[in-house]
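Prompt: May I have another protein with tokenized structure?
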Amino acid sequence: MGRNLQTDGVVLHVYRVAEYHKGLVILSPDLGIFHATAFGAYKGKSKLSGVSETFIEGRIFLYHDPVKDRYKVSEIVPEETHQQLREDLDRYYTALFWAELIMKSFAGGEGFAELFRFFSSSMQLLDRSEDIEALLIQFIWRYLGMTGFQPEIENCGECGRKIERGESLYMENGQFVCERCAGSRTGPRLSPAARSYLIHSASLPLHRTAGVGLNPAERGELKRHLCLFIEDVIGQPLAILQKGLV
């Protein structure tokens, strides 16, 4: 027999199912990432119509069919709508990038409760942050740490030698290596300033990292390199990056 259940959740993606129904990809601290159908949600009079949108966060009531292993959305009680990020394209595309990253990496495979809290708090900061680029960098770096893919940057990933204060690192095969190990290879460069920034900011709460900065050129380069690195880690391109939307 099926059963009714409820969970906290945030909608990562919405797609059309038949003419009037919505398919939702939901991140839950209890159930991880799963698909659920909001029947009739594209009908204007449906109680699910306005609350089954991307980035709606709240209490989600479900019916689970164990035979077909399908979820049906019965009700959504929103707690956060994140309206501010919906009204600003830079914020909206940044949140879409985060959501796509989580979906394509299958949320790292575990630790769903921690990831849910991290994504929720990141979106709350994104609602009001004046420094979207810095928040995007921090999200990628901390997500790599949470999922076990964060590269070593205090020591060379190849020879293990401790990196000196003024040295650069170079991205090679999913790790950062020193100049000596990189040799004539020309992987993306992690500058000494960018490396120091990542090391220092990692010890701070996310909401306090906005005041820790790099000059615009260094920060833009760091963002590009981390975006390249995250695509390399998950083994596939991210549409938001490929379209140049962040």
In short: The first strand starts at residue 3 and ends at 17. Residues 84-242 form a domain with the de novo design (two linked rop proteins) fold (CATH 1.20.1440.120). Strands lie at 3-17, 21-28, 32-38, 57-65, 70-80, 169-172, 175-178, 189-190. The helical segments are 83-86, 89-104, 112-128, 132-146, 179-182, 192-201, 216-234, 239-242.
